[in-house]
Amino acid sequence: MAPETIKVETDTVLPMRADVVIIGGGIAGVSTLLVLAEKGVSVALVEKGRIAGEQSSRNWGFCRTQGRDQAEVPLALEALRQWDRMNERVGGDVAFTRAGTCYLCETPKQVAAYEAWLEKARQWQVQSRILSPDEVDQVLPGSSRRWAGALYTHNDGRAEPQRAVPLMVQAARRLGATVIEQCAARGVDMQAGRVAGVVTEHGTIACDSVVLAGGAWSRLFAGNMGVDFPQLKVLGSVMRTSSISGPPELAVAGPDFAFRKRADGGYTVARRNKYEAFVVPDSFRLFGQFLPAMIATRQEYTIRLFGRFREEAKLPRRWKLDEATPFEAIRVLDPKPNPAIVEESRRNMVRDFPAFASARIEQSWGGLIDSTPDTVPVIAPVEAIPGFFLMSGFSGHGFGIGPGAGRLMAELIMGAAPCVDPAPFRFERFGTASAKKAV
Ligand SMILES: Cc1cc2nc3c(=O)[nH]c(=O)nc-3n(C[C@H](O)[C@H](O)[C@H](O)COP(=O)(O)OP(=O)(O)OC[C@H]3O[C@@H](n4cnc5c(N)ncnc54)[C@H](O)[C@@H]3O)c2cc1C
Q1: Which protein residue has the closest C-alpha to ligand 1 atom 13?
Q2: What is the Cα–Cα distance from 35 to 43, expressed in whole angstroms?
Q3: Which of 25, 86, 97, 254, by CA, is between 20 and 30 Å from 401?
Q4: How many other C-beta atoms are found inside a 10 Å radius of the C-beta of residue 372?
Q5: 130 CA to middle of ligand 1, Å?
Q6: Beta bridge partners of 261
Q7: Does the reported pTM lie above 0.90?
Q8: C-alpha atoms less than 13 angstroms from C-alpha of 157 in its C-beta half-sphere
Q9: pLDDT for 64-98, tens place per residue?
Q10: Which residues line ligand 1 (CB under 6 A)?
């Protein structure tokens, strides 16, 4: 069953024009929307299903700097600063708190790997540190095990995915932004070699700039424009427990479980390092580009030969803008969770933290995580198409970084000085061939 987001009002009438149109109502698109609306830019967002219906309401809710790709650390720090002010900005409670994050280690080898990460990340003044076995017991009491150590960041945070994005939409609308649900974008209208509008199932919105923040759908959408965005998906299975007192406030990732306290008093729980990678037609098309990442993260996923191939093979890859598209056919990507993985995550967590023994599984859900070959998102203009910006491929960690990414995207669109170096997020890093046939 899909997690329920809080309901907020959206618009019903498509504007004739906006300076910027955003495609996709997840954290990426909505964070950009909010910043642009705050700056007084005329902006509209179209969402094929419902706001935060896909990854942005299905994630664990970790907002962390620790363990990130070094390229992302400055953006993650900026995102935390944005989260700090989020309640004030949206006039509601996104349940953000800097309760800390802890990655537990079973072996000295794992501790050494985090030490190596920390050594590099110190240049960004991160507050992370390595905990000794005794320090783990102090910071995280209640475990039945003796841990070899941990990576701990006291000022990392967590927020409530089922609240945050809808509240940001509400705030952006108050500032004059337009947000339309059940409105799939079919493509981009090009005039004189540059973006002139977004064609949706309900009509065209004229605009100067368009941001594609389509999550797991960005590759398909961009592909119809001749832009080859390398992106694959893996399935994560998640559950939430009944309300329980006793377990910690910290967001914790062990070797084979992860948990985070929820605003409703329960916990969001998942089986860490057990994603399911379904073989689909894109697995063959993108095999070479993803091979290094597949080898490096081999322990983190299970390959499934069956399950999604037919569904994805049936999706058209090319369409005309006056035809119905796959985005209208599948309003909300709502994959089934794997019950065996959900149960395993519960069992592993109770094994190591017995205080969870009385927590009931209230709900479980699946989420398809979109990833790039280097697990770093694109937050950038696509140089071959003036006026076209891509913001996707957050590779399983876009919720926490989302508000920072939104600020960066808005600055790039407005031509303002960027809050962090945008170079690591360029689209063209995947090779110029990616966009050579554009539109
Ligand atoms: C199980 C799981 C656990 C995760 N845990 C964490 C975590 O703890 N911390 C963290 O930081 N991140 C986490 N993530 C990752 C995070 O959720 C994503 O990186 C982030 O939500 C991506 O946001 P997005 O806006 O790019 O995509 P999405 O939230 O998927 O939004 C994209 C939206 O675009 C819409 N769309 C697509 N095509 C069109 C179109 N043509 N027209 C109109 N609308 C369109 C879709 O309907 C969708 O609503 C997790 C993800 C999952 C699934």
Answers
A1: 397
A2: 10
A3: 254
A4: 24
A5: 31
A6: 267
A7: yes
A8: 23
A9: 999 999 999 999 999 999 999 999 999 999 999 99
A10: 23-29, 46-49, 53-56, 58-62, 184-185, 213-217, 221, 236, 238, 327, 367, 369, 392, 394, 396-401
